[in-house]
Amino acid sequence: MFCQECGKRPATLHFTKIVNGEKTEFHICESCAREKGEGIPGTPNSFSIHSLLSGLLDFNSPGTTTPQSAPQTVRCEECGLTYAQFSKIGRFGCSSCYSAFADRLDPLLKRVHSSTTHSGKIPKRSGGQIQCKREIEQLRKDMQTYIEQEEFENAAELRDRIRELERKIAEL
User: Fold this and answer.
1) Which residue in 92, 161, 162, 163 has the fewest CB atoms around it within 10 Å?
2) Per residue of the chain (172 residues), what is the pLDDT tens digit?
3) How many CB atoms lie within 10 A of CB 89?
4) Euclidean distance between CA atoms 144 and 138, whole angstroms
């Protein structure tokens, strides 16, 4: 999608304004956004998504440990990136950074996405097998709970359902 203002550069900012119940969408590039004076609250004259992410990393909630209050010595063993550097640039240096900063990312992800696990959409045409595998995973957890509670009849029912789903997957 190209910028609605200049039509030359790719639109990197997508604004939705709602004024008096009327919704208006703007798709513009960073240059045109600066010229128009459109701003993202909390970012000083910067429209980079990395700056926006950096702003989110500096969140402060009363009564919680924040990334700012913890020591900034956490460093990724692979690439050497520190959490302070990540907060500033808004990008990881390598895939190992996810593990290195995991304890600090969970509160951030929970705040941004309302969850720390990804549960994306499944295509209807090819998603049958994926849905079966997810159901099997949940049934196994439930079965383990029944076993711990010594409710073996319920656990046996779930075991049979799991076997049925595994046969179904083998047929797909």
Assistant:
1) 163
2) 888 888 898 888 777 777 777 888 878 887 777 776 545 444 445 445 555 555 555 544 444 444 444 445 788 888 988 888 887 777 888 988 888 888 887 777 777 776 767 666 666 666 678 888 889 999 999 999 999 999 999 999 999 999 999 998 888 6
3) 14
4) 10
Strands (E), 12-152: 13-19, 22-28
Instruction: Provide the CA 52 distance to its chain's centre, in angstroms.
Output: 15
CA 4/CA 27 separation, integer angstroms: 6
Give the DSSP H/E element, type plus range, for residue 136: helix 128-148
Residue 28 and residue 15 in contact, taking contact as beta carbons nearer than 8 Å = yes
How far is 26 from 33, CA to CA, in rounded Å? 10
* C-alpha–C-alpha distance, residues 81 and 74, integer Å: 9
Q: How far, in Å, CA of 13 to CA of 128, rounded?
A: 36
The reported pTM is: 0.35
Structure tokens at 37: 């004076």
